[in-house]
Amino acid sequence: MRAAVLHEIGQDKLEVLDDVEAVGFGPGRVRIRVRATGLCHSDLSAMNGVLPQPGPFVPGHEGAGEVLEVGEGVTRVKPGDRVVVCWLPACGECPACKRGQTELCLAGFMNAGTPNFRRPSGDVFGFAGTGTFTEEVVVDAGCAVPIPEDVPFDIAALIGCGVTTGLGAALNTADVEAGSSVAVIGCGGVGISAIQGARLKGAAEIVAVDPVASRRESALKFGATRAVSPDELAGAKQEVTGGEGFDYVFEVVGKSATARTAYENTRRGGTLVVVGAGAMDDFLQLNMFELFFDEKRILPSMYGGGDVLRSYERTIALWRAGRIDLEGLITHRVPLADINEALDQMRTGTALRTCIEI
After folding, report:
1. Tens digits of per-residue pLDDT, 86-98?
2. Omega of the bond prior to 230 within 30 degrees of 0, cis?
3. Rounded to the nearest 10 degrees, what angle do helices 213-221 and 189-200 cross at?
């Protein structure tokens, strides 16, 4: 079967090969025919080594498709079911799950160290224990979440990561207060979803911050009240908040420099939400006096900061009701053979989300 493979960490191109085999099928496992997958910035971060991932590997973790085969003991799905791939399934048994913090379950991460694929030359891993830039993938049953018949595969794929992460940051982690002021730094697919979440919660002012003009224009269509470049953020802070700072600032880039900017633009007593996934050697510097004196809340948001399955259901309900726009997030579509074109679209910021059709 075909799959896009990164041979070595640090390479910037994927090779689409037709000698890849999905492996690992057996009890408790599900084989999925991938129909659509989104390109998330985390895929690029894994490719360049910012996020730890053994190689060679098949990127992709934001996918949807049809169940081809189920292993012994699998009861939640059956062949023919439409599913979204959940890269962070909850085991239901660990302390985090029992506390209701299923997004912190580590069971899914344990799969990242087991190869999902094989080539004649050896084993190939799947990013985050999945790997959806492929025609077929074998995953734990918990990774295959059933979706209703009326949800298209491309929409379902987005729900698998970016939309859930961005919406959840505003709805779950921050619990944005109606009438508040919000700034979102980084307006790709996840940032735009955070903007939609803030709008749903009734934020009065939503300032989108991004260096790419097309993304700023898109942010206004999705609910931002104004959109500025990073150089214009100070002026927007003065105009919107009188210089005090925003009630909520979402950092959706994953770098310490933008996290520091986000902190400085959060009002005293306000909330900084860290959504972007960054590198382990990129340190955010804060002094002990400002931490004490400013009383700003710093809230990391992992996969939307809430129960993932409930978040999927909520997102579908909001989409059906026309309260959020998911179709508009898909600005580009490419076949798997042109996956490197999608990578370029992500790197240049010309795409909010590119759908890879398989």
Report:
1. 999 998 899 999 9
2. no
3. 30
